[in-house]
């Protein structure tokens, strides 16, 4: 079995073989954590106050990170420039992230050249193990922004001697098909539902390429059903990448065993936090992903609460890697809908159900209140809706245990299920989510604003 993409890089960074690399990694992370805390306190106006009373030298093990206060997205929204630890002249890339919820303030994430180089190195490390010099990768991500994800992937591919075609998000499936059959990429990188829709288009038009060897899915949840269907159509390996702007775009990627993400542990330190108590959780327990950047100089983040829900896995990976892994992201805490028993459900729970249906390329979901009861209305989209079989909700529900229990307890009921022809205008650029409508006839609002379902922003 092919080992993790990241093992070689971690071992080389440690200057150590696998016999003592875990010890060396811990020492490396501790040194980087101390440096990050020291830099943030000295140069960053936000952390100078936020870490008041904290000494970098008081951190004796990585467990001591729990003595540090959390950083929340709202901190960045309100104080973006105060996170800077270098002069603005040294910043080469600013990413503005529009946010939803109780405030409309955007988040701005700043990167220096050296921060960007770290991400390019990570992308190049992964892609060098999937393609050879002279081969082509197709990047179906926005690529017109300098140092954006698509542009960084193009740079990384170029540095390993390959060629990257970056047309951006699919807007025209005919044009994308022509591009693929003209340039014959061996690697395709894109968002899960976009790539699935492309595969459905290939299948129905009978133009399935036989030269694609690898697909990397990124930027949104990729359900097992989506991965399976892409693999079946393209007869290729499908990898799942986790990253967000705050991680420097690259966070981790699974290996050929497909048992969770191997993490960029020399650049990021991950914790799993109970979002109710703020306490760290042991391996195997689901909670909120919290990260600390290691080595980032432009805008370091310390114990940043991502809102993503996952767990650190107890068992070693079948690939033989000695390093820890994180399970596939399930939901974003603020976008998941609370249910009795401290459970939540979101779009991933529906993905696990509806993407098992042949012919479904995407779907929309609306949670609506009718006569004081909650109903889920679903619109299934396909290129040829006549190929979508009759839907049996009772057969699909066991694929989503949380939702199955909610239906059994009559907390939620399924309402209407309609079919709609998938069109290019249905393509998307962000994370898919359930729309929430408190009353019929009103325009759906963002989930975090709807019906009092979600907790308030944390105090700052």
List the helices and strands and how they pair.
Blueprint lengths: L6 H8 L6 H23 L1 H6 L22 H7 L11 E7 L9 E6 H15 L8 E5 L8 H11 L3 E3 L7 H11 L3 E4 L1 H14 L8 E4 L6 H11 L2 E6 L9 E2 L7 E3 L4 E6 L13 E7 L10 E7 L14 E2 L10 E3 L3 E3 L1 H8 L7 E9 L2 E10 L10 H4 L4 H8 L3 E10 L13 E3 L23
Count of helical regions: 12
Mean pLDDT: 89
Helix content: 25-40%
Main-sheet strand order equals 4-3-5-6-7-8-9-13
Overall 3D form: globular
- Beta-strand percent range: 15-25%
Sheet of most strands: 8 strands, mixed
Assign the structural class, choosing from mainly alpha, mainly beta, alpha/beta, alpha+beta, or little secondary structure: alpha/beta
Number of extended strands: 19
Poorly predicted runs of 5 or more residues: 439-460
Distance between the termini: 47 Å
Question: What is the C-alpha radius of gyration, as a whole number of Å?
Answer: 22 Å
Provide a descriptive summary of the structure in words.
The chain has 460 residues and is α/β, with parallel strands linked by helices. The protein contains 12 helices and 19 strands. The protein has helices at residues 7-14, 21-43, 45-50, 73-79, 113-127, 149-159, 173-183, 192-205, 224-234, 347-354, 393-396, 401-408; strands at residues 91-97, 107-112, 136-140, 163-165, 187-190, 214-217, 237-242, 252-253, 261-263, 268-273, 287-293, 304-310, 325-326, 337-339, 343-345, 362-370, 373-382, 412-421, 435-437. Strands 4-3-5-6-7-8-9-13 form an 8-stranded mixed beta sheet, sandwiched between helices. Helix 5 (113-127) crosses helix 6 (149-159) and helix 8 packs parallel to helix 9 (224-234). It is globular, with a radius of gyration of 22 Å. The termini are far apart. The model is unreliable at 439-460 (pLDDT under 50).
């Amino acid at each position: 079995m092919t080992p993790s993409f990241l093992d070689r890089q971690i071992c080389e960074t440690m200057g150590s073989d696998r016999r003592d690399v875990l010890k060396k990694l811990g020492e490396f992370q501790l040194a980087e954590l101390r440096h990050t805390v020291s830099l943030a306190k000295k140069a960053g106006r936000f952390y100078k106050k936020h870490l008041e009373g904290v000494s970098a030298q008081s951190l004796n093990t990585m467990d001591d990170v729990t003595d540090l206060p959390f950083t929340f997205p709202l901190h960045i929204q309100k104080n973006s420039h105060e996170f800077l630890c270098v002069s603005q002249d040294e910043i080469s890339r600013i990413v503005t992230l529009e946010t939803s919820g109780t405030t409309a303030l955007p988040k701005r994430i700043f990167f220096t050249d050296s921060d960007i180089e770290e991400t390019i190195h990570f992308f190049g490390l992964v892609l060098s193990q999937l393609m050879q010099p002279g081969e082509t990768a197709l990047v179906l991500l926005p690529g017109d922004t300098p140092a954006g994800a698509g542009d960084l992937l193009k740079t990384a591919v170029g540095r390993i001697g390959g060629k990257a075609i970056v047309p951006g998000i699919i807007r025209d499936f005919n044009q994308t098909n022509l591009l693929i059959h003209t340039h014959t990429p061996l690697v395709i990188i894109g968002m899960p539902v976009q790539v699935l829709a492309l595969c459905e288009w290939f299948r129905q038009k009978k133009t399935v390429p036989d030269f694609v060897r690898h697909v990397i899915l990124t930027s949104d949840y990729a359900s097992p059903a989506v991965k399976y269907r892409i693999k079946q159509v393209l007869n290729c390996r499908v990898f799942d990448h986790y990253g967000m702007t705050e991680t420097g775009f690259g966070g981790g990627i699974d290996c050929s065993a497909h048992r969770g993400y191997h993490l960029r542990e020399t650049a990021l330190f991950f914790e799993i936090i109970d979002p109710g108590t703020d306490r760290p959780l042991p391996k195997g327990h689901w909670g909120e992903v919290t990260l600390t950047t290691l080595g980032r100089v432009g805008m370091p983040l310390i114990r940043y609460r991502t809102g993503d829900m996952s767990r650190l896995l107890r068992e070693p990976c079948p690939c033989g890697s000695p390093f820890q892994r994180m399970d596939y992201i399930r939901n974003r805490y603020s976008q998941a809908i609370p249910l009795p028993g401290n459970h939540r459900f979101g779009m991933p729970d529906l993905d696990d159900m509806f993407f098992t249906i042949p012919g479904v390329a995407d779907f929309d979901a609306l949670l609506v209140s009718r006569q004081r009861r909650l109903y889920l209305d679903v619109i299934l989209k396909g290129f040829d809706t006549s190929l979508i079989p009759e839907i049996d909700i009772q057969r699909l529900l066991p694929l989503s245990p949380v939702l199955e229990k909610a239906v059994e307890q009559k907390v939620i009921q399924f309402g209407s299920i309609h079919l709609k022809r998938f069109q290019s205008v249905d393509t998307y650029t962000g994370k898919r989510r359930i729309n929430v409508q408190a009353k019929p006839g009103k325009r759906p609002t963002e989930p975090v604003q709807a019906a009092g379902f979600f907790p308030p922003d944390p105090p700052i």
